[in-house]
Design goal:
The protein has about 170 residues and is of the alpha+beta class. The protein has one domain: endopeptidase domain like (from Nostoc punctiforme) (endopeptidase fold (from Nostoc punctiforme)), CATH 3.90.1720. The protein contains 5 helices and 8 strands; from the N terminus they run ααββααβββββαβ. The strands form 2 sheets. Strands 3-8-4-5-6-7 form a 6-stranded antiparallel beta sheet. A two-stranded antiparallel ribbon has the order 1-2. The radius of gyration is 17 Å and the shape is globular.
């Protein structure tokens, strides 16, 4: 087998062997934040910030909800978003309302990892925010009874409350 064909076979085999995010598995390779991770400066060539944002957010699954929380001891929704972006060298405002006015509007059919997704949960307009991780999924800090977790945008609860998406990157 020629080198080109062998290389193509390895790439195709790797794609089929990867985990499926919809099953809760984290596809590999996937950025994993933490002390061992190498932080690439913002704007550096080859940086895929949206997936880095999603990787940081996924790493925080299971963190408890805490009203006003903005660190791994506990998060509210906008504190979670602010913290995740800060871990990747990007400053975003602290409140849902301010976050909703950042970046540019994104068509829901064009969502990418790292985009912010907004919902109307307690009042008209954007009152809750999460981070798109790809496909039909987003990660967020849901409520006082919850913890950081992944949900589907198409779920009945979230799809009827969706008010828009923004791209900060």
């Amino acid at each position: 087998m020629s080198r080109l064909r062998a290389g193509s076979f390895v790439i195709i085999a790797t794609l089929f062997a990867g985990g499926c995010a919809s099953t809760g598995a984290t596809p590999r390779p996937f950025p994993t934040p933490g002390p061992a991770a190498v932080r690439v400066p913002a704007g550096a060539p080859g940086r895929d910030t949206g997936y880095e944002i999603a990787g940081t957010a996924l790493h925080l699954r299971g963190t408890p909800y805490r009203n006003g929380g903005a660190d791994p001891a506990g998060f509210d929704c906008s504190g979670f978003v602010s913290y995740v972006f800060a871990q990747n060298g990007l400053a975003v405002p602290r409140t849902v309302t301010e976050q909703y006015h950042q970046g540019r509007q994104v068509d829901p059919q064009q969502l990418q990892a790292g985009d912010l997704v907004f919902f109307s949960t307690v009042a008209p307009g954007a009152s809750h925010v999460g981070i798109a991780i790809g496909g039909d999924e987003f990660v967020h800090a849901p409520s006082s009874a919850g913890e950081v977790r992944v949900e589907r945008l198409s779920a009945a609860y979230w799809s009827t409350r969706f008010v828009g998406a923004r791209r900060i990157l």
